[in-house]
Amino acid sequence: MSGNNSALLGRPSERAQAAEYGAAGSVGDAVAAQPSAGLYAYSERVDAWVVRTAKPVSYEVRVADGLFDFERTDLLEPAAAPGKRLRRFVVLDSDVDLLHGNRIRAYFDYHDVEHVICVVPADETVKSFETAARIVEELDAFGVDRRREPLIVIGGGVLMDIVGLASSLYRRGTPFIRVPTTLIGLVDAGVGAKTGVNFNGHKNRLGTYFPADLTLLDRTFLATLDRRHIGNGMAEILKIALIKDARLFDVLEQYGPQLLNEKFQGESEAGEDAAREVVRRAIQGMLEELQPNLWEAKLERSVDYGHTFSPTVEMSALPALLHGEAVCVDMALTTVLARRRGLIGDADAERVHDVMRALELPVWDDLLDGPELLTAALRDTVRHRDGQQRLPLPVGIGDVTFVNDLTEQELLDAVAELRVAGRRVGGPQHV
């Protein structure tokens, strides 16, 4: 553009009038006629344009227990083109394949679906662009109709993040369906819009916003999870309870160990009622926070609670800590910070730590003893949050506030206090 940019772009009043006139009008000699609403050119010698558009976003999260029972047809949506055979490319976690692969294949065979099963080992150590590229290579070999043949991912949060990224990149956007098989996938990774892989030693450093068209929640998959992974998902449920849902916290406090024992399968009437309420409240709470700010235009996000220090702690501890465990350590530390600021009372802070222990989650990790790790984590978070800390801290149980004035000394004092509480008999260390 030339040095006469201000004239070319028009004065503010001219821009406003141009926007008002849209396609029909013009304002003075400096503003050209507008060819369509949302596209504005501000000079007769057109060399500057402003384009405003919006893309509607709609996606569904659906309870679908018994998803692979032959009578269910959720995974057959959308239908094939008239006269064509239904086709699906399925990415399946290798652990899930060992436990459920036969019935998954039998389901697609029963419904005469032409399909390829791409089996992928998936954990944080292989959450990489290389894994995403391998999936895309197999997808490209199979070939899919860009709109009628969504990818299907069956696995935990790690695999859903990887496949989501691959889907967002393949042909600049190919629909996909998520089937979470872990609790953390069911209530957290499976309901949002973010995709990503780890890169250069940083968690989720490469990623996109690309929600699945459909997420299908089948609680029966949780029956084959080990106890530790149930607790891992309960950490993300506890996050929602602490920032916005005191009732959810009460249910976790009363029934958490039972849910852990029963793996959310409702082996008793009370356990079934608690399982349904906890899952529903966790998902509802998460979606209430995400929906108004899906693209993170606002960087003060209450669901970032527990995610200030945990990304760095988790990546440094690999593979010793699972994601939810690292989040729980972060929440234990920030609960102490909140208590020291008078945001949460002593009794409630103790209740929070007691629930963490009851869910067999760590409230301490020896990595916290390295102050340089936490200060580096905070610096990285500040860059991620556009130059401010925007640190979520609990206000009592069920509310949250944000602070931007955390000092290194305050952080070290909180670590020293947590060290004593976290190493108390019965409090897990490196789980």
Please explain how this structure is put together.
- This protein is α/β, with parallel strands linked by helices.
- Helix content is 44%, strand content 13%.
- It is built from 14 helices and twelve strands.
- The strands form four sheets. The protein has a six-stranded parallel β-sheet, sandwiched between helices. Strands 1-2 form a two-stranded antiparallel ribbon.
- Strand 1 (39-41) and strand 2 (49-51) form a beta hairpin.
- Helix 6 packs parallel to helix 7 (227-244) and helix 7 (227-244) packs antiparallel against helix 8 (246-262).
- The radius of gyration is 25 Å and the shape is globular.
- 42% of the residues are buried.
- The model is unreliable at 1-33 and 425-431 (pLDDT under 50).
The secondary structure category is: alpha/beta
Question: In angstroms, what separates the terminal alpha carbons?
Answer: 59 Å
What share of residues are in beta strands?
5-15%
Largest sheet: 6 strands, parallel
Radius of gyration, in Å, reads 25 Å
Number of helices: 14
Count of DSSP strands: 12
Order of adjacent strands in the largest pleated sheet:
3-10-7-6-4-5
* Overall 3D form: globular
Q: What's the SSE pattern?
A: HHEEEEHEHEHEHEEEHHHHHHHEEH
| Uncertain spans | 1-33, 425-431
Mean pLDDT: 90
Indicate the percent of residues in helices: 40-55%
